[in-house]
Amino acid sequence: MNSTDTPVLIMITRRSVIIYAVELLILTTGLVYCSLFLAIVLKVRCFHQNLRILLVNFATAYMVEIISRYMIVIPLMHTYILGYASPLDTFPWCRLAHFVHDMTIAVIFMDTVVLVVERSIATRNSRTYELSSSSFIGVSLVVAQWSLAFVFIWLNQAYDNTDEKTDFVLSAACQKMYLNTQLFTVLAILSIIVDVIVAVVFIILLRINRRKYDENRKESGNYLSNRYQTAENIRSTRLLYPLMTAKVIVSLASAGLLLTAGLVLAVSKDTVAKTQTASILGQSFDLLIATYTVIFPQLAFYGQRSLLWASKKSILCVRRKAVQDVKSAAQNIRGVDGKPLLNDIKKEFDDHFAALEALWNK
Hints:
Blueprint: E1 8-10, H1 14-43, H2 49-82, H3 91-109, H4 111-124, H5 136-158, E2 168-170, H6 181-218, H7 224-267, H8 271-303, H9 305-331, H10 345-361
Parallel strand pairs: 1-2
Helix pairs in contact: 1-2, 1-8, 1-9, 2-3, 2-4, 2-5, 3-5, 4-5, 4-6, 4-7, 6-7, 7-8, 8-9
């Protein structure tokens, strides 16, 4: 592009708005499921304290990510509908929204790492870990996770280079990606490498736990409590297996989409075509993360019977309360004379014999 060329204005397209609408629907569903999951994990006592802290952190991160997407998508849709910039579509607002969104994405990418660290400690200390009620490990991992994400995204925005050598202008502030392309590429590549390593380590941990349990069963000198703690460790680790598998698949696919989008922007010469292609890839990434916020609680519920039972109980309690409210409202219907129009069997029985007694006394 020559210095005299006019930058191309990239508008919000109808296709993008349709994708945003679908994403908002998925995000809302994910917010409901993650809220239910968070409430249940805080209530049940089938996990070690450290593992519970990590699961609560996961659900919280997904919920914050969903809210940050609302902060980005709603102004964009509002701008498209109005035909001019939404009052919310300002650079400070959008920069904050992207900072929160990118930070939670970095936290989500590190979920598998902290899980493997916690399960590794549990495996190494399997004889005493389940009996310990200390939450130091869980809190430390969560603090480290958010601190690293904060520092990385702060550097990413502080050294934002997306405005350098661009041949297009965005029509909305929230369309802009506030990041350093080199650092973001490093993050995407690192996430792929780390996810592969974590998947291998997790499988090894599961095998080690099974071998320990078999050895404890064969050796008569092992106490029942040792076998129980090893079995609990296996059960908790097995619960995380579908979560880890889905998370690794989503992470690899997400990193692949981001790298492909970056490659398209770097290689393609057609300004409009490359920005549209990169936009579709970016929205595909957002849809993938949104879908995982719905899948994550489902995998956890069906991977652990206690969670599944607690979730069904919560839903049934809500339904039962709704039915009771309807019955109560129906029973309170009264006629013009102020007497109830609908009575239960006992009330009708009592009223009938009271009337007979009054008639007899006359």
